[in-house]
Amino acid sequence: MLDIEITAGDGAPHLLEVPDEAIIGKGSDSDIRLDGWRLGKEHARLYRTPAGVVVQDLGAYIGLSVNGARVDSQYGPLAASDVITVGGYRLRVLNSMPEAPQVQAASPVSRSSSAPARNRQATEELESSRHLAARAAEAVQAALRQPALGAVVDAAPANGFALVPGVDVRRKELEFEWRKRIHAKLLDTMDLRRHDVSSMSDEQLRTESATVIRTIMREIDADLPRELDRAVLSRQVLDEAVGLGPLEELLADDTVSEIMVNRYDEIYVERNGRLLRHPLTFTGDRAVLGVIERIVAPLGRRIDESSPMVDARLKDGSRVNAIIAPLALKGPALTIRKFSARRLTSQDLVEFGALSPNMADFLQICVESRKNIIVSGGTGSGKTTLLNILSNFIPSGERIITVEDAAELKLHHEHLISLESRPPNLEGKGSVPIRDLVKNTLRMRPDRIVVGECRGAEALDMLQAMNTGHEGSLTTLHANTPRDGLARLETMVLMAGMDLPLTAIREQISSAVDVVVQQSRFACGSRKVTSITELTGMESGKVQLQELFRFVSQGYGNPDQHGLKRVQGYFTGCDMVPNFYEELRAVGADLDMDIFKPTLPPGHEQVERRDWRTRSSTDRRRAS
Fold first, then answer.
1. What's the pTM?
2. In terms of domains, do 228 and 273 share one?
3. In DSSP terms, which residues pair with 25 in a beta bridge?
4. Who's near 582: CB < 8 A, 6+ residues apart?
5. Is the bond leading into 482 cis (omega within 30 degrees of zero)?
6. Domains contained in the chain, number
7. Which residues of 73-95 are buried (b: 16+ CB within 10 A; e: fewer)?
8. Contact at 8 Å (CB) between 39 and 11?
9. What are the C-alpha distances in Å from 464 to residues 390, 410, 473, 544?
């Protein structure tokens, strides 16, 4: 709040408390309401900035003056002794200087019409951020408990989302406030030096910004709180100015698998399948929008009011989705799904408990024997990670072509071509959908086609490729069960507009797809392969399925140290051998049939079963 001393003519002064942004005028909505024919309804404005309080003339005919000198535009920061004269009234801002240590300007600046508009960019930044500063502090305080300086947070707040443990709450608040002030000073300084940042390379811009930040830090070192780490603060300001802001720290953290920015002051992360509220924040909506633009610009993508959604990727392959106003009501929202920097293998999934060793061996045999596989699952269930691992089972001597909306797959093959779809340009033209890319791959002599995800009409072209000599193709789709996956595949084929009868579509699916791998994400955050199912043909107009492996859930165990209940269960075979195993055995393949034996729950004795090799296809069909 601002404490204003108002004196009318020769009368006695009186005090008035108003918000940090206050309108002076005779209008009924004015925060400082003054009477007189010489005042406009909205005559002037007072507002607080990190450097102090500024007074702005709103264009009234009589105008205003400070210390007897006419102000044509703005004047500030104000000192407690400065007298504002407006319409016969004299005003003084008693608490004009910042309450906390501030970045001090060299001298008050009177922005008259003859002065250059040198601080326009910085002023816009400050005007947008002053509304947000109070909200940011309230958000941090609401999300975090309020211990004394130096205390850390480990407990979960009342809203149900735990906080990242080991956080110094008050230090994060101080860092946010000082980062905002130094960032504003950086913009001001860069503007004063007339730097054309658009013509600089990323490295030049980062080097120049780092130099300016070091200069600013030296100037204000005496005012900075002692408990703040100068190097950390400098890096945070640099990251927000020319990098990805608070996200840089999270992207470098290998334990974080997903980053979700709901708005500038609401950042959540996923660690080990668990959602946590992170205390790091941006300085405002413009900072989030700047990060989004820095991500999408190198990819030739765009985001603005006419195209407020975008899918993109980072240099390390992490997938990015962004959405801004007018669609995002709380401000720009950003979601980043990170991928492990290390090449994951099937053994890693076994160690994570995502599938059993028998499942991993079977999937490797399927890929090497050129079986068409669909990975089905819900959002965030790990489909792309599993597709990456399956793709790396492909022998190195084969030619592979990948097709994706936003390139995510990381295949380590020498003979590899990666294709990425293209959105429409500003005129709504020039788009290249996945379907066109899948058609084009058929003319590129592929041994394997890997489609990142089937979402629409490209499903028909994918099925035709699988049926016309491109065995061993891989793709993913969204579905909750293998049967639902096939139903969704039928729907996507109908989206191609070919008006095919349903029976023909199902025959295409049954002859093209060999195996469906179902991936699921449980409430505790763990991801598991819950089913591996073989397609065995058509019967009575319906695609026949034969489950080979499954995960048997036994509910949730006791809470762990974080209060989280983990899903309990075991992987088992389903007493069925896939039909194509007989073909592989006929050509001399050495196959272990015991992997399909059922596994009893822990604590139960394994019963003796008849030899699997003696079971005929008819026996297995009857058993199903």
1. 0.62
2. yes
3. 33
4. 617
5. no
6. 3
7. ebbbbbeeebebbbbebebbbee
8. no
9. 21, 25, 11, 20
Do residues 463 and 324 both lie within one domain?
no
Please tell me whether residues 331 and 363 are part of one structural domain: no
Asked whether residue 206 falls in the same domain as residue 168, the answer is: yes
Contact 612, 594 (CB under 8 A): yes
Which of 337, 363, 380 is where one domain is finished?
337
Position 116 in a domain: no
Q: How deeply is 523 buried, as exposed, middle or buried, from its count of CB atoms within 10 A (0-12, 13-18, 19+)?
A: exposed
Residues 250 and 326 in one domain: yes
Residue 164's identity, in one-letter code, is V
Report the interhelical angle of 230-242 vs 169-192 (nearest 10°): 60
The token duo for 544 is 């026949």
- CA atoms within 13 Å, Cβ hemisphere of 397: 1
pLDDT at 238: 80
Radius of gyration of the chain (CA): 32
Quote the domain boundaries for residue 550: 346-623
In a domain, 73, yes or no: yes
- Residue identified by tokens 């003339």 is 57
The pLDDT, as a whole number, for residue 161 is 55
* Percent of the chain with pLDDT strictly greater than 90: 18
Q: Dihedral through CA 493, CA 379, CA 545, CA 572, nearest 10?
A: 160
CB-based contact 360:351 (threshold 8 Å): no
- Residues 120-170: pLDDT tens digits? 444 444 444 444 444 444 444 444 333 333 333 343 443 455 555 555 556
| Residue pLDDT, tens place only, 41-100 | 888 888 887 778 888 887 776 778 888 888 877 787 888 888 888 888 888 898 876 654
Report the chain's mean pLDDT, rounded to a whole number.
78
